Every structure is written in structure tokens, then in C-alpha cells.
Amino acid sequence: MAASPTAGVPLCDIQAQYRELQPEFEAALARVLESGQVILGPEVAALEDEVARYCGVAYGVACGSGTDALSLALHALEIGPGDEVILPTFTFFATAGAVCRTGAQPVFVDIDPVTYNLDPFQVESKITPRTRAVMPVHLFGQCADMESLWNIAERHDLTIIEDAAQSLGAEYQGKRAGSLGGMACLSFYPTKNLGGFGDGGMVVTGDPGWAARMTCLRVHGMEPKYHHKYLGWNGRLDAMQAALLRVKLPHLDGRLAARQAAARRYDGLIEEHHLGHFLRRPVVRAQRRHTFNQYVVRVADRERDALVQWLKAERIGCEIYYPVPLHLQECLAHLGHRMGDFPASEEACGCVLALPMFPELTVEQQSRVIGSCAAFLRQRNRKAA
Questions:
Q1: pLDDT (0 to 100) of residue 4
Q2: Are 76 and 165 part of one and the same domain?
């Protein structure tokens, strides 16, 4: 199939904000280089304070990636062999991988098929005397059903660790992601709501003891210098990334508003092209602020993979988040799960599709995306006739 001669549409364009803020980025980098403090230091400390305040908590511990953030949070609770952590099976691998690397066991729960977030009504049946924490993932930019989880955690004396990698700025009942559990793990991967120019992450918390422990863990458990209190690792954030993120943070709410506006345009275009039966739009639950880190549709009639090939031929970016649930991943086969154990997650893996989404996405680009989906459906219907 020949690609369209018109311009393509990227899944995510991280260069657009760079061009907009280039002078500020260059000034921030010059400030770091002139200071000579390129690892941790005042830039990182300032970012920690600013992001923590944005989330509505007291402490932030910056680190090398969102994966490091998950590991720091688990180690702060001293979770290890013999412990269990409950989490959804429909999420990025890092959530379960961090649990496994502590020596603890991930205990999977199925999802709400409408929001793709962990189904809280399945959590309580998974709790055992070995359960230490619940890790809801605020997937695609919408918070999980936290009120139900708060009640469960209180009844069973469990800590909630938010995996908020995709949801900085999201809200639940007026409270921001990052303040909805004991700790929250953020990612500054370039495509995230607040993305850097490389890897980066942070844990935010209101607990000073956990914050102090994580601050020590990220520098090989060292306190004071060359005296190792814990078995930590190198999980630091460098000052250049912190400085660049500090430039972007004041623009975050405006960029989230642009994402929400783009999502509304997608909704309208899908309706305009009469595609609602074919592309099921994202559902935003009541009392939520959805930040649309991704705009994920549900493709009907087992046509997702064919649509992906069509869009790629049209030079339109798209991605499948996620094609294989965690319980069926090869490296987790020892947990003994089989196809059919978590049907809502398995079904989602077969039909979800993320369309291009970034704050600078234009009306013309979105029209091209949805127009191409409509053309795919017309061709399919002609062949079926």
C-alpha cells in the first residue's frame, strides 16, 4: 500500500516545546555548567521542592528514572522476599519488574475495562498476611478509583504506592496524583506530561522518614560519605535534567489543558465521521481530571492490527499500550498464570490503540488521523460487500 504524499503525523512531537522554550533551556544549561554542580545539587533540590508542592505533598526525591522511583518507594518500605504487592496486570513492565527485583512477589489484579485502571473490587480477595502494599497505576493520565482503595488499605493496614508515571497533574476528587497514597512514583521520560531530555524520575511523599531513606538509597545507601547505611544503588538525577524540567514545570498546566482540548477534538471528529461504533473513545470518570498522556481508543471487530498497518502506511504514528499483559510475559512465567486468568486485561491487549497525542497537536493533524481511520473502515466495508 502506498503511503500518502501528505505530511505524516508523529505519535508524539517532543521538539515542539523545545523550539518554543529554547532560550530558557539554553540559559538553564548554561547556569548548570557555570556552577560546576552537575550531579544532584541545588537544581535538583529546587526541582524536588517545586514538584512536591505541585503534587500537594511535602517531599520529593529525584532519581534516575521512573523505574528507579518505583524501586526507591518499595525499598523505603523494606519490602523484600516473602512479601507481596498487589498491582494491575495491564500496565508497563516496570511496575511489576520493580517488585520482582526486591525479591517480593507481584500479585496481579484485573482492570476496569472502561478506564483500564486497576479494578478495586478485585483487590480485597487478593490480600494475604504477606501483602504489604497496593500499587495502582493511573494509566494513560486518569487516576484509579482511589476511594475504594483507601478503604481497603485502611482496613488491612496497607500502604498505597501510586504509579503516577503517566499522570502528573491528574486529579481525583480535587486532589492531585502524587497525594493520593503514601508515596507516588513519577517519570520524566521525554513523552510524559512533564518530560525531560533523557531519563528521570521522582518519588513524592508526605512522610519525612521515607523521604530520608530514599534520599540515602539513591546514593548507594551512603550516609555520611563512604559510610553505607543501606544497600542502595546509583539512582541520582543529574542537574542538567533538573534545570530543564524546572523550565518546563511552570508550563505544565497549560500543556495539560492543550492535551484535554486535543482529546475533545478527537471525540468530536470520531462522532463527525460516525466512527463511534468502530473507535470507542476514552471514558473520563466523574471527579477526575484526565491529563491524556495518551489518547487510547478501543478498536472494534478485531481490526486493531490491520488499522495499525494502515496508519503506518499513511505515516501516522500510533502505538499499542500494551500488547501483552504482565501475567503472560515470559520472564514472569514462574508465577504460573495462564490465558484467561485476567480476561478484561487480555481483551484490552487485543484492541487498544493510542493515537497521536501531544500538546501542540493541530486540528489539521487530528483531522488527518481520524480521516485515515474512516478511510480504512470504508475500504474494509467495500471488501466485505
A1: 43
A2: yes
Query: Do 298 and 184 sit in the same domain of this protein?
Result: no
Task: Provide the domain count of the chain.
Answer: 2
pLDDT digits (tens, 9 = 90+) for 7-31: 799 999 998 888 999 999 999 999 9
- CA angle 377-380-383, nearest 5°? 150
Contacts of 56 (CB under 8 A, 6+ apart): 175, 176, 178, 179
Give the span between the Cα atoms of 108 and 341, in whole angstroms: 10
- What pTM, to 2 d.p., does this model score? 0.95
pLDDT in tens, 115-152: 999 999 999 999 999 999 999 999 999 999 999 999 99
Same domain, 165 and 211: yes
Identify which of 147, 135, 132 has the alpha carbon closest to the alpha carbon of residue 109. Answer: 135
Q: Are 177 and 149 in contact (CB under 8 A)?
A: no
CATH number at residue 180: 3.40.640.10
Rounded Cα gap, residues 95 and 137, in angstroms: 8
Q: How confident is the prediction for the chain on average, in pLDDT?
A: 96
Cα–Cα distance for residue pair 182/68, rounded to 1 Å: 17
Task: Check whether residue 235 and residue 330 sit in a common domain.
Answer: no
Question: Domain check: are 172 and 186 in the same one?
Answer: yes
Instruction: Give mean pLDDT, residues 254-278.
Output: 97
Question: Both 257 and 165 in a single domain?
Answer: no
How many CA atoms are closer than 13 Å to the CA of 121, on its beta-carbon side? Answer: 2
- How far apart, in Å, do the first and last CA atoms of the chain sit? 21
pLDDT digits (tens, 9 = 90+) for 155-182: 999 999 999 999 999 999 999 999 999 9
Q: Where among 250, 280, 300 does a domain terminate?
A: 250
- 81 and 208 fall within a common domain: yes
Percent of the chain residues past pLDDT 90, beyond the cut: 95
Question: 2 pLDDT band (50/70/90 cuts)?
Answer: very low
Rounded Cα gap, residues 341 and 363, in angstroms:
41
Cell 492531585 belongs to 176
Examine the fold and report which residue of 219, 250, 281 is the final residue of a domain before the chain moves on.
250
The verdict on residue 8 lying in a domain is: no
Q: What one-character DSSP code corresponds to residue 199?
A: -
Beta bridge partners of 62: 202
- Domain interval for residue 366: 252-384
Residues 235 and 318 in one domain: no
> What's the rounded Cα separation, in Å, for the pair 28 and 284?
37
